[in-house]
Amino acid sequence: MAPSRIDTPEATPVAPTKLQSSQNPKTQYGDFRDEFFRNGYAVIKGALTPERAQEYQSRALDWLESFGLGFDRHDKSTWKKENLPQSWKGGMYLHFSAAHEKYVWDVRCEPGVIAPFAKLWETDELVVSFDTVNITLPQSIVGEYDSKPWPHVDQAPERSGMQCVQGIVNLSEAGPADGGLVVMKGSAPLFDEFFAANPVTGPTPWRTAKHKDFHPFSEADLEWYTSRGCELVKVCAEPGDLIIWDSRQVHWARFGESEVVRTIVYATYTPAAWMTDADRRTKAELFEHFETTTHWPHTNLYTHGKATVTVDGEERVDPLERDEPLTKPVRTERLLKLAGVIPY
Ligand SMILES: [Fe+2]
């Protein structure tokens, strides 16, 4: 039976002061938070130096070459879909222990990446998501992807208020012609109003347990937002910049027309205090098994599982699957706290 919208996500303890700050337009911070609360997103310049971003991109490409399928970053004639392991939407690697490669954890532990989230949530005691990387080779070379826009939010309509803020650490250029994030600017604060006016009824086949914090939008829905003053913006950023957005903000990723290899790490942080003991145990177990999860750090902890292939009509584990990362992360105290393995 298709899962139904009647399911109610578990209650999440949310500090009321944080919600007030997100909903009180008179609050002035004098930093990126003003733009963030006004527009539902912000670009934080130089979370990493460009050199460090380039180094991390190089590690990401090492990883992509490590599957031995023929992809060579230095030889564009090898930039073909068949020379790459399977991914979602052209470059999101949900399997192969990708989320736990050392370089990905190194990015998540970067002080310049963590600091804006600590400021936003007003605590240094954070947990981070086990979501993954996106390495998308240009369509102009490898051919078209499924490039139809998929406007959505990553928060269930039943969750009221700001409960998750997502992040993209840019390891490559995201200019106007490059691939990158598109947001419906100003849509986050209209989240409750939208679902009050457009209640979700009937079967919602997309809503599995893993995808409960997700809702897709139609063209008419987008018009609902634009008629209230929202506008679509392609978010531009440079290597080393951090993009953050409220999970209630309507968004999707646009493929580029340039030859840039879009390379990003998704990194979302929320207060560790919001995690229940049961979720902490689940998260620690997911970490020990190098599983990749959703964007949510403290709840909605579901693995994407193993990559599969169909052979003679039978679904089997992709022979390229890995039980552990190629290069394991160093288990520092900082990392283990962010992973939820060690409590604060
Ligand atoms: Fe999303």
TrEMBL record:
SUPFAM superfamilies recorded: Clavaminate synthase-like
Residue stretches in coiled coil: none
InterPro entries assigned: Phytyl_CoA_dOase-like (IPR008775)
Full protein name: Phytanoyl-CoA dioxygenase
A Pfam family recorded for this sequence: PhyH
Residue ranges with Polar residues bias: 18-27
Disordered as annotated region, ranges: 1-28
Gene3D superfamilies the record matches: q2cbj1_9rhob like domain
